Amino acid sequence: MDKSAMPKNTNDYSAADIQVLGGREAVRRRPGMYIGSTDQRGLHHLAYEIAYNSVDEAMGGFCDRILVIIHKDNSVTVVDNGRGIPVDIHPTTKKSALETVLTVLHAGAKFGGKTYQVSGGLHGVGSSVVNALSEWMVVTVSRNGKQYRQRYERGIPQTELEIVGEAEGTGTKTSFLADKEIFSTLEYDFDIIAERLRETAYLNKGLEFRIVDERTDRELSYYFEGGISGFVRRLNRNRTVRNRQPIVFSKAVNSTVVEVAIQYNDGYTDNTLTFANCVNTIDGGTHLTGFRSALTRVLNDWGHRNKVLKEDEPNLVGEDVREGLTAVVSVKLAEPQFEGQTKGKLGNIEIKSIVESVVVEELGLYFEEHPDDARRIIDKCLTAAKAREAARKARDLVIRKGSLDSGTLPGKLADCSEKDPSLSELFLVEGDSAGGSAKQGRHRRFQAILPLRGKILNVEKATAEKMLSHEEIRTLITALGAGIDEDFDTARLRYHKVVLMTDADVDGAHIRTLLLTFFFRHMIELIHEGYLYIAQPPLYKIKSGKQEQWVYNDREKDQALAALKSKAAKADVQRYKGLGEMSAEQLWDTTMNPATRTLLRVTIDDAAKADSIFSVLMGGDVPPRKAFIQAHAKNVKNLDI
Ligand code: 28F
Hints:
By secondary structure, the chain is α+β, with helices and mostly antiparallel strands. The protein folds into three domains: 23-222, 2-Layer Sandwich (Heat Shock Protein 90), CATH 3.30.565; 228-395, Ribosomal Protein S5, domain 2 (2-Layer Sandwich), CATH 3.30.230.10; 421-537 and 600-635, Rossmann fold (3-Layer(aba) Sandwich), CATH 3.40.50.670. 39% of the residues lie in helices and 20% in strands. Strands 1, 2, 3, 4, 5, 6, 7, 8 and 9 form a nine-stranded mixed β-sheet that branches. α3 runs parallel beside α6 (190-203). The protein starts with 14 loop residues before the first helix and ends in a 9-residue tail after the last helix. Bound molecules: ligand 28F.
């Protein structure tokens, strides 16, 4: 700046004046530094900054009504019923406190002492910045039974502070028109501003906001007795909640107030909103860190103390306790430090331990008094932990499989020599005996055999994820070579026919159901591509003299017997249960030889049915299982219990 242009240190310009002019210049030269941008977002910041001053008064307990009006000319008026900006004359600057607040940068930011300022710290630039960026601003203060007024243009006083009448009550009214030389738009978005004010109303229970849009005659008012409890309810309004009553508590520690509301829903996302002096700290910070570590600790403590978490089981981790979490963490502190590019992160170190101790104490107490809520929440976290564990196993599996990719196939796999997957077949057989005759009976050029030990597949209620932790399942995945779940890639499949060839008894049916469910849940494309089949081994062998006949179901058996009977031939019927009862060449002839066999191709709804049968038969809920068994009991044949 050309020094000669600077006024001499004459009595026309005091040091304070130079500070004011310097500050105003700085703001108008680089507005983005103070309000982020000069588009609509920056324009909205002007309205927020003025409204925040009223919120500061409310947080100090001096104001409970705030009115925001958007006028037809896009000027904005904010009115509060606080104490009114002081108007006494400052001894050195000879200016009123009001003019000082409106013209010195950050002058209003230091209330000091106990009260909190939304406009405090770096976040709040206060009214002086708004003033500098407004074509005009008029501030009217009701205080000491009088009404005082002063008018500014682009931050420069156009009048002295004048008394313009009597005043009922106290408060501050600020009207301003953003400077079209600075902002690309003067159009406010009513809904955006209303949403921000609604949030602020939740954060200050008992504070009434009214917002009027004179351009459209729309008017909204927000007043939440329930405060942040109502906030989490609103956040969960389209959700099924786990704890009907939000968990709400607040506590003051020295000059810091911590307020928390928690309500779980049946979803999988973490929707924790954090605020510092009503500023939405979108990048979290020390209050969030403290909250999260306390939540995990309290849930683990309660879970172990109430024997819901087993000693030998690993603890719940942060991710588990945050699934389906809706929470509002609001702290109010004297000197907030906002960090990060968008000043959206709370940096005050001491807040972490303050929030952590408040949450540990208050949430712990709440769980003692509401064990059923605690139980419902813990159960949800446990499910999340299991899913996380299984996902990790699946990832490990894929990673390990990746390492296994180096051509080392599982030892149990009797592979075929054909390398073209479209010509290759893999038979999954149950147990080593069937495996034996299958290995002998197969055509080793294009047929591979993988024996699976059925029993390990009988996982208890845990979903198929638990299957993933079984060696056999890992072997199966490695043999197929195409990964699982979202990593599954049919292009990597080593066989285009995967044939379930389990025994024709209850165990075999059970294992087939489990395998179908596994493929349905983790390799759905295998089914979509039509690569999954079920072998059709014969159920009976009917011998009559030298003649042997194989039949595959009861209907065929009855027909064969009737035919033999008509010839008065003796017939000896042998029921096959285990494939191991057949010789290798019998198995080849009846079940594996492409020229003579019948393979049933699995379609999606077969697998889906298997999956629903699996979840009914093996799932957690008893009633559906009972209904299923009752409905199907009469169809059950050859129940070999
Ligand atoms: C429409 C915008 O700006 N409201 C405000 C107050 C109240 C006080 C204050 C503001 C103290 C001396 C710095 C009153 N009485 N609404 C508003 N209400 N500023 S801004 O004080 C400013 C500081 O100068 C106030 C006693 N203490 C504070």
